[in-house]
Amino acid sequence: MAMREIRTVGDPVLRTPCDPITTIDDRVRSLVDDLVETVDHDGRAGLAANQIGVGLRAFSWNIDDEIGYVLNPRIVELSEDEYQDGDEGCLSVPGLWYPTRRAWYARVVGTDLDGNEVVVEGTELMARCLQHEVDHLDGMLYLDRLERSVRKKAMRAIREQL
Fold it and tell me: Which reaction does it catalyse (predicted)?
């Protein structure tokens, strides 16, 4: 296991959709170990594989003292009429938080390292995390979901950090 460096905005791996995991081998097991170890720190809610430079569909989470992972996740359900509008941040966009609208409830289905189906669901912070991490695996950042005027402000703040 290794604590991995977080890739930040501007790195092309963050904008590249991740490939499905077709074979669970030592490389994938090592990836999961790294995802779990790297997310296991205060202030970290989730971590997608591409955030540590690996273009495979996997992420880990650290919500309410529960740490887990899922391979090949796909969102199968979102609340359609209940939303949350809180501030959202990202390890790949350090230090910046902006209001981001997300579904209040989300359910993700994927697999574990043994190939068994895994269902991860939740409301509020867990729902936000699930949506955020699947976006990463699809090559999206939360910045892409911001209202235009807020996104403009965010991009200016990112340029000022460089």
Answer: N-terminal N-formyl-L-methionyl-[peptide] + H2O = N-terminal L-methionyl-[peptide] + formate
Within-domain flag for 3: no
Query: Residues forming the annotated binding site?
Result: 90, 132, 136
4 has a pLDDT exceeding 90:
no
Q: What is the mean pLDDT of the chain?
A: 96
Domain count, the chain: 1
3-state secondary structure of 124: helix
Parent domain of 102: 12-161
Residue ranges of the binding site for Fe cation: 90, 132, 136
Environment class of 102 (CB within 10 Å of its CB; exposed 0-12, middle 13-18, buried 19+): buried
The C-alpha atoms of residue 72 and residue 65 are separated, in whole angstroms, by: 23
Handedness of CA 6, 10, 14, 16 (dihedral sign): negative
Domain contains 2 = no
Q: Contact 21/140 with Cβ under 8 angstroms?
A: no
